Amino acid sequence: MQQTPTLQAVPTASAATRASRLDEHVALFQSEHSKLMELDQEILTLREQRKNLMAQIPSAKARREELRQGRINQLMGGVVSLEAAQEYRELTELLDDAKAAASLSECQEKRLALPLYQTQLAVNSAQSMVAGCYESYLDHKLAPAILPNLKQQLAELAALTRAKGCIIGMEGARRWALNELGSALKEAMNGEQVVLEGDSPAARQALLTSTRPQCADVLALCDSPGKRQCLQRELEE
């Protein structure tokens, strides 16, 4: 005799398992975000160094031009200052070296663009996993501990709603009750915050943390496959 197949319930993850997974996702996000901030800071440091370097160039150029004019005047008078000539050569070398240093710094920044882009993708992915896992944790762990008590407390409001329904109709009474509930919830959210037992502050912090680096403009160098290929070819030259 053929047996009729029966459906078997698939066990859902336990609260402890959900909490463990949430902690793992939060830890991954924190790790990836730390890498992102390190790369971001490295680029910011390169930019600050270039800024300081370029700030010295105008005065060096002005001094070199002053020496050049002075040397021309001296030559016209038949006088040569070896000391001024030495300073002129040193300033010329300094300006050439500054230009080379700035170029090298810009190249180093471009080399960090792709790692920054890839790390931001990883951070965004990790943050999305935190959001999904945190939502599941709230729905299956915390909500079941809160909502049943709330439903019991709504019995009197339900009775009041039915009473008003005799006057304004049940549909109008339900709208009135929902409006009152909405106002009460808004007032509670604007009032003193209550600690949610079993909550994960680390997950909240991860979701509130910005994943946009300060030097986000660098991401424009590799925000498409074509741009990434061009950047890689440029860096290989």
Features:
elongated; disordered N terminus; 237 residues; mainly alpha
Structure description:
With 237 residues, the protein is mainly α. The protein has one domain (15-191, 199-236). The chain contains six helices and no strands. Helix 1 runs antiparallel to helix 2, helix 2 crosses helix 5 and helix 3 (155-168) packs across helix 4.
Q: Beta fraction of the residues?
A: under 5%
Gross morphology is elongated
Please, what is the average pLDDT? 89
Oligomer kind = single chain
N-to-C span: 76 Å
Task: Set down the secondary structure blueprint.
Elements: H1 15-76, H2 82-153, H3 155-168, H4 170-190, H5 201-208, H6 225-236
Helix pairs in contact: 1-2, 2-5, 3-4
Question: TL;DR of this structure?
Answer:
By secondary structure, the protein is mainly α. 80% of the residues lie in helices and 0% in strands. The N and C termini lie far apart (76 Å).
